[in-house]
Design a protein that fits this description.
Layout: H1 4-13, H2 20-37, E1 41-48, E2 55-61, E3 85-89, E4 97-98, H3 104-110, H4 135-140
Antiparallel strand pairs: 1-2, 2-3, 3-4
């Protein structure tokens, strides 16, 4: 796992700063995620602002296989759009939640809509055209 404190210092040079306390919490939270998930690599992907909560997003590589899917258009984990696994949390002191693998129908629908995230992974929302999933699926797509 990369040293996030060193990466935060480089980000600070670029004018992006989370603050010392948040940087420390991120380092410890990402370390805990790496241990609990068994991922080979973990990196902070970014922060997405929501209306009620903000999402911290991390990416990584999992070598363990996921359940099989019968859809021939679905890309299995480790290939294509599902090469990386994504985790999110709204609080760095809480556990991270693994987002589901991307499905073709989610990717197609996500390109057609604009949505302001709420910060609730289980939130449903109305859009035109409609989206076939929850906020967690849109976040992953």
């Amino acid at each position: 796992m990369p040293n996030f404190n060193e990466e935060a210092e480089m980000l600070d040079w670029a004018g992006i700063n989370f603050g010392e306390e948040t940087t420390y919490l991120l380092q410890q939270s990402l370390k805990r995620l790496a241990i609990m998930s068994g991922a080979d690599r973990i990196n902070l992907c970014g922060k997405i602002f929501g209306t009620n909560n903000d999402y911290w997003v991390a990416t990584g590589v999992l070598t363990k296989a996921e359940e099989t899917v019968d859809d021939r258009n679905f890309e299995v984990r480790g290939t294509g759009v599902n090469k990386y696994v994504f985790w999110v949390t709204t609080n760095l002191l809480n556990d991270w939640v693994q987002l589901p693998d991307a499905k073709p129908e989610h990717l197609i629908a996500a390109r057609r809509i604009k949505h302001v995230f709420t910060g609730d992974l289980n939130a449903t929302f109305d859009s035109n055209p409609s989206f076939p999933g929850l906020e967690r699926h849109l976040l992953r797509a």
